[in-house]
Amino acid sequence: MLDAKTFTPLLAVDNSGSALTVFLVYTLVVFGLALLSNHLFKNKSFLSEYFLGSRGLGVWAFALTFAATSASGGSFTGFPSRIYSHGWILALWIASYMVFPLCTMGILGKRINQVARISGAITVPDVLRDRYRSPTVGLLAVSLIVFFMSFNLVAQFKAGGKILIVLLQDNALFQDGVAWTRSVLPQTGFLSAVDPGYLLCLAMFAFAVIAYTTYGGFHAVVWTDVMQGIVMAIGVMIMLPLAISQSGGVDAMGKSLAEMTPPRVGFVELTIPRAFDKPITLPSRWVLIPGENGNQRLLRLPAIPTVPAHSPGYKAESRYVELTTPAEIERQLERLRGGAELDAFRAAVKRLDPAAAVESLTIALLNEIPSIAIETTIVYEKKYLYGDGVVGAYVTGPGANGPTLEATLQAELDAVKRKSQINDEELAGALGFLPLSIAVSYFFMWAISGTGQPSNMVRLMAFNNSNTLRKSIFTVMIYFSLIYFPLVIIFCCARVILPGMELDPDSIMPSMAVALTSNAGQGWLAGLLIAAPFAAIMSTVDSFLLLISSAMVRDIYQRNINPKASEKTIKRLSYWCTLLVGIGAMLGAVNPPKFLQDIIVYTGSGLSACFLGPVVYTLYWPRTNAAGMIGGMLCGFAAHLAMYVGGVYVNDSFFKPWQPMGFDPIIIGLVVSFASTPLITKLFPPPEKALIDRYFRKRPSTPDA
Amino acid sequence: MPPAPSHSPDPPPADDEWDPVFIHSRREARLIVLVWLVAMLWTVPYCYFTGFRKEGESPEVTFILGMPDWVFWGIAAPWMVANLFTVWFCFGYFVDDDLGRDPDEADSDAAKESV
C-alpha cells in the first residue's frame, strides 16, 4: 500500500554499486557465451554458422531471440516514459501487439525459411538475389539495408550509452572514471564538446557488445538474447505486483489517475542569498510556493541544484514541473513529511549546516532549509497542449500531451520569439497524443511494419523446422503478453507513486525500479530490474551489427567480388567487418546528429516500406519478376521518402513528415510498394519456368525432415 | 550456347503440383492478415467511440480491474481472444511441413556418407 516513504532518491541504489555490478556481471556472462559459441561452431560451415546459426535454432532460442530483438531499448525507456506522460492511451498505441507474434512470425516465417533452404541463402538479399537470379536485386537490397541500418545502428549505440549513464551516473567509482576521462580528453577538436560521462558509458557499452558479437557471431547473439529475454520478463513480472500494491491496489490506482489533471511546466529562478565556503548540492527537488486564492503550488525540479563556492546572492535557473491535482499534491506533501525522504533531507541539511536544529524540520522542501532562505520566482510557464485542466486526461483518449521545453530559459524564449503564431507541431500536439488517424497508423506500425524488418526476417531463416515455428509463435505470444500490457499498468501506477517526472522521462524506469524495491525492503532487486532496459538495447544492437556485416561479407564481397574466397579469408573478413562496423557506429554515436530519434523512426518505417511488399510477392506470387521486385523496392523507398521531403515544404522540417489525411508515411510507403510491385511485374516478361519450378513446384520430401 | 531460358510459355503447375509448403503458408498468411484486420477494426473504433474525449463531450469512464472500461473491452479482452486464437492457430490450424534441407548441410552429410 502507498505510504509516506514512497519517494526514494535514486542515489540509494547507485551508492550501493548494484548498477555497476549488474553491468560487470552481464559483461562477464556474455563474454562466456561468446567463447562457448566460438568453440562450438569450429566444425561447421563458417558463414552459415556465424551469420545464421546453421539454421538450427530450437524453440526457446528462436522464440527468445526473436522477442528480444523485437523489443529494443525503447521498450524499457521510451515506452515507459510515454506511458507515464500520456496515460492509458498507450494501451491503444501498443494494441497491435495482440497479433504481433502471429503477424511477424506467421505471415512470412515458414515460407521464407523454406525458400532460404532451397538456395542455401543466409541473408535477406541472398534470398532475393537467388529467387530472381539477379545480382541487381541482391545489390539493391544490400544497399537499402546498409543505408537504413547504419543510421539505425548509430542511434542504438547512442541509446546504449544513454541508458548506461542513467544507471551509473551517481556511482562513486563511475564518477572517478568520468573525472579521469575529462582529464584526458583534448580541450579542442572533435571530442572537446562531448560529455565525458556519456563518452565513458558509450565506450563501455560498445566494447562489450562489439567484443562478444564479433567473437561469438550469431549463436553468441542468440544465447545472450535468450538470457536478456529472460531478464526482461522477470523484471516486469517482479515490478507488476509491487507497482499495483504500492499505488494502493488496482481500484485506488484507477481512481487516482481518473482525478488527475496534467501538470504545468516552466522555469523557476532560485536565489540563494547565503555564500558557502565550498560548492554545495541542495538536498531536495521539491519547492512549495504560495499561489492564488491561498492555494499552494508544489514544484519538482528535474535536477538537484548545485551552488558554487563564495557566491552570495547566487541565482540558479531550473526547469520545473508543477503538480496540479489537489489530491496528488496532498499525497506528495504527506510523503515529504516523513519516512526516508525526511531522514535523508535532515542528514543533508546537517552536513550543510552542523549547527542547524534539524529535528525541527518537518518536511523535505527546498525552501524549508533553515539559514538559507531560498527565494523563488516563476519566470516562465507553459500549459499542456492537450489536457490542461482536464480531469481524466490520463484515462481517456487522445491522451494528455505536454509542450516541448527547451533545455534553458533563453533557448525557450528564443524559440518563442521565432514563432509568430502556433506552428504545425503545436497544432498536432493540441489534438492530443493519439488522434484516430495516428492510432490506425500504429496498428500498421507495430504488427505490419515489424513483419517487414530484415532483422526479423533473418531470424525466420534460422529455425530448424516448422514445429519449432509453431511453438515459437505460441511462446512469443505469452512473452509479449507478459511484457507489454503489464508495462502499461506499471507505468500508469508510476504516475501515482512518482509524480512530477515529466521533464526527466528517461529516468522513470530506473527510478521506479529503485522506488518499488526499496519500499518493499528488497533494494538488492533494483539491480536486476534496471538490467532489463540494458538487456533490451544490447539484444537489438548485436543483431543489427551482424545484419550489416553479413550484408558486406556475404552479399557484397563473396557474391559479387570474390565468389571463390577461401573459408579462412571469409572468416577473417567477417571478424574484421563486424569489428569495424561496430567501431564505426560507436564513433558515429560519439557526436550523433541532432535528430537521431527521428532517424530511428525514419529508418524503421523505411525498411518496411522497401521490403515487406516485395518479399511477400517473392514468397507468394510465382509471377513476380526481377523488374517488379526492383520497382517495388524503389517505389516503396521513394514514396516513403517523398512524405519526408514533403515535410520540408509543409512543416518546414524533413523530420516532420507530410501526413496526408493524418496517416503516417509507413502506410503510404506500404500501399505504394504493394501496388507497384505487381503493376511493374506485369509490364515485363514472366520469370523463367525453371525458377518457378524451383521455388513453387512440389519437391521430393527429404528422408529425415 | 546454352538454351535460352523459358519464360513460362507452359501453363502454370496444376493444383496438385504446387509445393504444399507454399500452399499451406499462403493459406495461413491470409488468415493471419484477416485476423489482424479484424483486431484493428474492433480495437480502434471501439476505443475511439467509447474512450476518446470529443469536442464538448466528457466520456463517463468506469473501471474494470483498475483499467478504464474502454481499455478493458477495447484492448485487454480482445488481446485475450487474440491469444486464444493464436493457440488454436498454432496447435489446430498450422500445418507441420517439411521445409527441406540446407544445401550446405546436405553436402556435409553426403561427404560423411562417402567417407
Structure description:
- The complex is a heterodimer of chains A (705) and B (115).
- In chain A, helix 10 packs antiparallel against helix 22.
- Chain A is mainly α and 705 residues long.
- Chain A starts with 10 loop residues before the first helix and ends in a 9-residue tail after the last helix.
- Chain A has a 5-stranded antiparallel sheet, with no helix packed on it. In chain A, strands 2-5 form a two-stranded antiparallel sheet.
- Chain A contains 27 helices and 7 strands.
- With 115 residues, chain B is mainly α.
- Chain B has a two-stranded antiparallel ribbon with strand order 1-2.
- In chain B, strand 1 (63-64) and strand 2 (67-68) form a beta hairpin.
- The longest helix of chain B has 32 residues, at 20-51.
- Chain B is elongated, with a radius of gyration of 25 Å.
- Chain B starts with 19 loop residues before the first helix and ends with a helix.
- The mean pLDDT of chain B is 83.
- At the A-B interface, helix 7, helix 8, helix 13, helix 18 and helix 20 of A face helix 1, strand 2, helix 2 and helix 3 of B.
Attribute tags:
heterodimer; A: 705 residues; five-stranded antiparallel sheet; two-stranded antiparallel ribbon; 63% helix; B: 115 residues; mainly alpha; elongated
